[in-house]
Amino acid sequence: MKNLKRISLLAILMAFVISCKTMKNDPNAAVSGKVDSIEAGKDGYTAKITTDAKEVYFATISIVNVGGPQNYKQLKIGDVVSVKGEKWKSEDENHIKVTEIVSVK
């Protein structure tokens, strides 16, 4: 009985580690598209970006993640942007933690 509990715990732990590993897809990805909305956060904001392929990404942009105030830009609704960062997918949403704002038009 004791060994069964240990094996079960180990199996659950392995499943958790594997699922967390697969959630983070691409640490150096790029996303380009139009800003549809902006939601202010504690130390930055989240911009909803829709790509030309109609994919929606929630881009988290903060001063710390882009490398300081000299690299930080406040996007506006309607801007066409290109950003780079760590991309991942939650259950039904695409996210990117922005580390570089490449262009804003």
Topology:
Elements: H1 2-23, E1 24-40, E2 44-50, E3 56-62, E4 80-89, E5 94-104
Parallel strand pairs: 3-5
Antiparallel strand pairs: 1-2, 1-4, 2-3, 4-5
Q: Which characteristics define this entry?
A:
105 residues; alpha+beta; OB fold (Dihydrolipoamide Acetyltransferase, E2P); 50% strand; signal
Give me a quick take on this structure:
It comes from Flavobacterium humidisoli. The protein has about 100 residues and is α+β, with helices and mostly antiparallel strands.
Can you put this structure into words, describing what you see?
- The chain is elongated.
- Strands 1-2-3-5-4 form a five-stranded mixed beta barrel.
- 13% of the residues are buried.
- It is α+β, with helices and mostly antiparallel strands and 105 residues long.
- A hairpin with a 4-residue loop joins strand 4 and strand 5 (94-104).
- The chain contains one helix and five strands; from the N terminus they run αβββββ.
- It has a single domain, classed as Beta Barrel (OB fold (Dihydrolipoamide Acetyltransferase, E2P)), CATH 2.40.50.
- The N and C termini lie far apart (64 Å).
- It has one helix spanning 2-23; strands spanning 24-40, 44-50, 56-62, 80-89, 94-104.
- This is DUF5666 domain-containing protein.
- Keywords: Signal.
- Residues 1-24 form the signal peptide.
- It comes from Flavobacterium humidisoli.
H/I helix tally: 1
CATH architecture: Beta Barrel
Give the CATH level 1 class. Answer: Mainly Beta
Count of individual beta strands: 5
What is the total domain count?
1
CATH topology: OB fold (Dihydrolipoamide Acetyltransferase, E2P)
Low-confidence stretches: none
Q: Any idea what the shape is?
A: elongated
Instruction: Estimate the helix proportion, in percent.
Output: 10-25%
What share of residues are in beta strands?
A: over 45%
Mean pLDDT: 87
CATH superfamily: Nucleic acid-binding proteins
- Strand order within the widest sheet? 1-2-3-5-4
Q: Give the SSE string.
A: HEEEEE
Q: By helix and strand content, what is the structural category?
A: alpha+beta
Q: Oligomeric state of the chains?
A: single chain
